[in-house]
Amino acid sequence: MTTLKALRNTTPRQTINTLIVVASMIGAIVFPWVVDPALVGVGFIALIYAMRNFTWNIAGGLVGLLSLAHVAGFGIGAFTVAILTWGHGVNVWLAILVGMLLSGLVGIVVSSIMSRFGVNAFFFALGTAALSLAVSGIAASWSLTGEVDGLQNHTSGEGLLHLQWFLDPKPLYYVALILLVVIVCFTMWLTSRTRFGRSLPFIREDPDMAASMGIDVVRNQALTMGLSMALTAIPGSLIAQYTSFVSYESVLTLEIGILMMVGAIIGGSSTLAGPIVAGIGIAALEEGLRAFDVTSSSVSSITQIIYAAIVILILRLGADGIVPMWNALLDRLFPSREHHEVEPELESNDKEPAHA
Amino acid sequence: MLMQILVTGLLQGVIYALIGLGLFLVFNVMRVVNFAHGYFVLIGMYGLLWIAPTSLPSYLVAAMGVALFAATFGYVIERWLLEFTLHKPGHAQLVITISLGIAMQYFFQIKFPEPYQTIANPWPFSSVEILGVSVNSGRLMAAVISLALTVLISWVVYRTSLGQNLRACSQSLPGAVHVGINFPRVYRGTFAFGAAIAAIAGALLIPFQPVSPHFGLDLTIKAFIIVVIGGVASIWGTVLAGLILGLAEAAGSTFVSGSLTSSVIYLLFLLVILVRPQGLIVRKADFA
Amino acid sequence: MLEVAEVAKSFGGLRVLTDVSFTAPAGEVTALIGPNGAGKSTLVNLISGYLQPNAGRIQLDGEELTSRPAAKVFKMGVSRTFQVTGNTAELNVFECVAMAAYRQSKDFSTVNRIAEEQLRAFGLWRYRTRRLGDIPTAMVRVVDFARGMASNPKLLLLDEVMAGLTPAEVDVVIDQVRACRDTGVAIVMIEHVLQAVTALADSVVVLNNGQIIATGSMQDVSRSEEVRAAYLGRAATT
Ligand SMILES: Nc1ncnc2c1ncn2[C@@H]1O[C@H](COP(=O)(O)OP(=O)(O)O)[C@@H](O)[C@H]1O
Ligand SMILES: [Mg+2]
């Protein structure tokens, strides 16, 4: 979104943000070649976190559906690859598509049912949490999903077709990067160019008003939830290929679902960049803590605590998240020309813009 | 086997009822959706694990100590993190309490890396026979004390002026303000009280229930199940729902694996949310 | 032409509208006036499908609007403004108008062009990148009006769009209402700004306590005793 708008009419903020986006793209591309090989894996995990937060935010931020069902989509993505590809030799890309389809279907059904019964935001969160816990429990006791022991990858195919490289983590890193870029570009296109995508903020802010503008609220909510969950299956599949191991504990705990939500909110769920920034941030934080010689089991615990503390602080201060705060800072440092365009005689009864 | 289900189910159900009661009060009086409630139970469990009492008197004192601590903690949380979200739109409250719970979960994870610990049974007898079923003394006493506390709490809510204030705030906040009730104080008190009840339940559980940090989330959801099924009408709905949950779990786990039982319960709960978001057990009068 | 026939609505036990019938012909401005709480906004909510009536029928050019959902009613050509804008502060001005333009076209650039035309016509172009929450509240209703126009409606329902505007701004909006009427749109306008009612209304419908107590030209209704008692008298004293 930032880039598209920047092309149309540039304010200093948009110019700076465009530069940052370009710089971080270049940084992401050269990253595996300039860092220690061990850090490439960290980069991959960062991309997975970013993708997870970003795809959650399509439903959670753009339409305001506080869903805890997304971890089910993440798990479905991982287990579909494990069952179909590792267990039955189906091509991994096909398995990813099947996972997306299944996960998307769950999203559509959940959202449709919830709307059908007029469930409010709190019961939506609670109900989707219950659903995820149920799915998790089923995965833990079903032989198909390996019960508590999980499933192990014993396939030996290597290369892009098999989405598996045994020694070098770089190719998988690039696959994740490309998929993330594709997902982001697709979402940008959807939200700025299509009627469906442009209708989403109206549904989030005021469903009644949205309906009176001809927007099919229930249908669009369901489609967004479906799309969002279908895309969440992708990082699930990728992490399965990366670790070659999937169990209900590694991909299907409600905690993961909560982290997606918290991550998107920390970054700023009203923006497209926010969830990505937060995802990369937490991976960096984890790695930074490791450098401080914290035992590995504590690392993730400490990052979760820091994560939770940050989101509480952000909400307590009434802020919108990292990226909106950054934008506000830029607007304050470089007031946009927009303001001066306003004709002087009308400016008097004009409220100051919130950011000034 | 039927007796086995009945006895263990009811005993567990009474404790669930106590946990649900804390959430019920907070939910009903303040309309706060506290996703950290289950983690307040963990305060009780881990608190006692940390103190590790060795005799009955020290156990009882420790239980009261963790309750007091949880109450203070709850008070501070309400005052600093929740008060500003009350009666405001948006999801701040939900996300804050979830995040608080997560922070507590991982705090316990770091502090107590050894999973599934219990404390030594503080009660002077080890087990008794009820209706031909042998029951662990910790479980029995936990149920007995929970029942006593439940009765005591309902007496406070329905028979004292303190309870009258609670009910007034629950029924109509403008009305309560009109008759001069200091509602922020009532709110803080209620939240602290809810946290203390949860911690006591935790203290009662720990002699026979090995603890793990992820229990917090399970217990939160279970407490919500109880409150949603019990409805907002009266405390007795909550108690009944607690008993139903205890029985359902006991029955389920005799036939299938534990995690599958919870799956079924969660799915049933989803159904309840959809068809009766106002609760299954509804009485005419609103919490009066 | 909008035809409202014997419409009734109550909330719980409270009867807000009883037996309301009137017509609003195409190419004319029908002003709906009456004291606060008379049920005017409720009537707009019923026509736009936001609420469903307990009795009666609402038709637009012979097509049934009754018990159609709001989105469908919009597609059939009914556009409305909101008297109270709830949680719309975050919405972007340009997007608001563009979204409504999708009734006319599915094409991205056409939709944007229509939105631009409407914003310029209403003198709102300079607000295009703002959030609704950042512009003066009175202007939010003008954006609403522009939004209604962008959908090229058959019937436009304006709920107090001029409240709080400066006389100069009222003139801009009056010109827009005229221009819109001249394209053959039926306009139902709830308005307290008498300057606007006198300038625009082809006919006036007076609502009091949920019932129509007078219809006719502005001159006719202002002569009616009942109207003076119910509305003009009270308006003069308050
Ligand atoms: N959703 C509602 N629920 C209950 N009463 C309502 C509702 N909407 C409006 N009313 C009542 O209906 C009456 C008419 O309101 P309204 O149509 O807004 O009047 P007007 O727009 O003429 O000022 C008022 O008494 C108001 O309190
Ligand atoms: Mg009105």
TrEMBL record, chain A:
It comes from Marihabitans asiaticum. It is a multi-pass membrane protein. InterPro entries: ABC_transp_permease (IPR001851), LivM-like (IPR043428). It holds the Pfam family BPD_transp_2. The chain crosses the membrane at residues 20-50, 62-86, 92-114, 121-144, 172-190, 222-244, 256-285, 305-326. This is Amino acid/amide ABC transporter membrane protein 2 (HAAT family). GO terms for molecular function: branched-chain amino acid transmembrane transporter activity. It is found in: Cell membrane. GO terms for cellular component: plasma membrane. Keywords: Cell membrane, Membrane, Transmembrane, Transmembrane helix.
UniProtKB/TrEMBL annotation, chain B:
Keywords: Amino-acid transport, Cell membrane, Membrane, Transmembrane, Transmembrane helix, Transport. This is Amino acid/amide ABC transporter membrane protein 1 (HAAT family). It is found in: Cell membrane. It comes from the Bacteria. GO terms for cellular component: plasma membrane. Its main location: membrane. Belongs to the binding-protein-dependent transport system permease family. LivHM subfamily. GO terms for biological process: amino acid transport. The chain crosses the membrane at residues 6-27, 34-52, 58-77, 89-108, 140-158, 191-211, 223-248, 255-275. It holds the Pfam family BPD_transp_2. The keyword Cell membrane applies. One of its GO terms (molecular function) is transmembrane transporter activity. It is a multi-pass membrane protein. The keyword Cell membrane applies.
TrEMBL record, chain C:
It comes from the Bacteria. One of its GO terms (molecular function) is ATP hydrolysis activity. InterPro entries: AAA+_ATPase, ABC_AA/LPS_Transport, ABC_transporter-like_ATP-bd, BCA_ABC_TP_C, P-loop_NTPase. Residues 2-234 form the ABC transporter domain. Keywords: ATP-binding, Nucleotide-binding, Transport. GO terms for cellular component: plasma membrane. Pfam families: ABC_tran, BCA_ABC_TP_C. This is Amino acid/amide ABC transporter ATP-binding protein 1 (HAAT family).
